């Protein structure tokens, strides 16, 4: 399941929560999907930080 599908499913569950509530299974699924999404965000952020290269200009 790619990240777009994860976000789509999280949104579906959020809409259902507002309309009629979630079952225990759906609540557990939502928690797992949210954690997967957060892991992806953290991994991408870490990659961005790791790719930063500090450059100091020499003072004249």
How far apart are the first and last residues' alpha carbons, in Å?
54 Å
Any idea what the radius of gyration is?
A: 19 Å
Topology as H/E string? HH
Please work out how many helical segments DSSP would assign.
Answer: 2
- Please tell me what the overall shape is: rod-shaped
What structural class should be given to the helix and strand makeup?
A: mainly alpha
Percent strand: under 5%
Question: What features would you describe in this structure?
Answer:
The protein has 60 residues and is mostly helical. The protein is 73% helix and 0% strand. It has helices spanning 3-19, 24-50. Helix 1 runs antiparallel to helix 2.
Chart the SSEs and their pairings.
Blueprint: H1 3-19, H2 24-50
Helix pairs in contact: 1-2
Concise account of the structure shown:
The protein has about 60 residues and is mainly alpha-helical. About 75% of the residues lie in helices and about 0% in strands.
Q: Which keywords apply here?
A:
2 helices; 60 residues
